[in-house]
Sequence to fold (257 residues):
Amino acid sequence: MPHEAEYHDNMVTMLELIWGKGYMAPGGTGNVAKLLNGIETEGMLILDIGCGIGGPAMDMVRLHGVQVVGIDIEAPLIERAKADARSAGLHEHCRFIHVQPGPLPFADASFDIVVSSGAVTQTRDKASLFAEVLRVLRPGGHFRCYEWMRSEREYSEDMLYWFKLEELTYDMQTLEQYGALLSEAGFEQVATVDASDWYRREVRREYDLIRGELYSRMVELLGEQDADHFVENWRAGVVVCESGEMRQGYCRARKPG
Fold:
């Protein structure tokens, strides 16, 4: 069954406003640097799973000397990424492909590096996805991801309310579960880093911005109703981040060489 798009135009506009042009996850170019930290990237071919509108992929090309194939299950996001890559003169280095959920449409050992920022959070069958990542990586290749995660506690009413405001599909796991799933898939050198303290500070800063100096711009771009929705959405996000219930983390792993 084709995927039903969840990222409507106003949501994409809002995410870019708070996270930067082309970005649909926090951290901007700094997040790209964290994902690729410690890897000699020059001339490498990267697969970006859940590439969205392509900002991270284009920054990988600009700043890290790579070629990127970006994939996403939402066709409008891919069309936007293609248009932006052409406008930026990067279309020969960034290829964007609309895919359906399921096995990755690439041959074995096609990529040097696979990255993802947020897509695994929204994937129910993480074990199958990690198996596919391992398959398409070349021997010795790297997998890096940044994801939103849960704590071990049962979801609170605050968390369920935040999910309702987000209007997105989430299937969260703990950081420890991510590490175990990567090891079970056959990766080696598996490591996880808890980034919750960093985003706890960021989400508070973001909330202060959108209810303050960014609010009038949000109303101009989105209309008052959607602007107010996102203010409340971020307020609810602050609550679950500051309580420690919603967490963030980085995972890194390597395919045996």
The mean pLDDT is 96. Strands lie at 45-49, 67-72, 94-98, 111-117, 137-150, 188-194, 246-254. The chain has ten helices and seven strands.
